[in-house]
Amino acid sequence: MVVPNCGCGETVVIRTVTDAFNRNFGKKLWGCRHYRNSSDKGCSYFKIVDEDDVMDERDLLIEKQKLKIEKQKKKKKKNKFKSELSRTRQWLIMALFFGFLCFGIVLILGTILVCKTTSILSGFYLK
Ligand SMILES: [Zn+2]
User: Fold this and answer.
1) Count of domains observed in the chain
2) Could you tell me whether strands 46-48 and 13-16 are parallel, antiparallel, or unpaired per DSSP bridges?
3) Which of the residues 2, 55, 97, 102 has the least number of beta carbons within 10 Å of its own beta carbon?
4) Quick one: DSSP state of residue 40?
5) Would you say residue 2 lies in a domain?
6) Is 79 within the bounds of a domain?
7) Which parts of the sequence belong to the GRF-type domain (predicted)?
């Protein structure tokens, strides 16, 4: 069955007319999710529910199940994203560590090189 959309672009909900002066009193109708009265936010969309269009318990259950599956799918996606993020972080830490290691080696080699050059220079000066 098709759930109609209201002016807000959202799926509507089933309401029961509780206004005793309304000629549709007691009837079920599709109404805007946000609808309370005309001054409230939300549009004033409403449509009387056809007898053969009424959502029965089974349809409601199916809708709920669909929502549940959708939620679980979203959760799985989120978890995947999280694990990917932690993996990226691990790589980043490793790269950082490697960088520091290279930097240390270069520093030591540089110091040795500088010491050698100075010793050569001092040897030159001593001549
Ligand atoms: Zn609406």
Assistant:
1) 1
2) unpaired
3) 2
4) S
5) yes
6) no
7) 6-52
Q: Is residue 77 part of a domain?
A: no
pLDDT in tens, 35-74: 665 556 778 777 887 765 555 667 778 888 899 999 999 9
What residue ranges in the chain does DSSP mark as E strands?
Answer: 13-16, 28-31, 46-48
Q: 40 alpha carbon to ligand 1 midpoint, in Å?
A: 11
**Residue 11, C-beta contacts closer than 8 angstroms, at least 6 positions apart:** 3, 4, 5, 33
Using the mean position of ligand 1's atoms as its centre, give its distance from the Cα of residue 72 in Å.
Answer: 28
Cα of 21 from ligand 1 centre, angstroms? 24
Cα angle value 50/51/55 (rounded, 5°): 90
Asked whether residue 48 is domain-assigned, the answer is yes
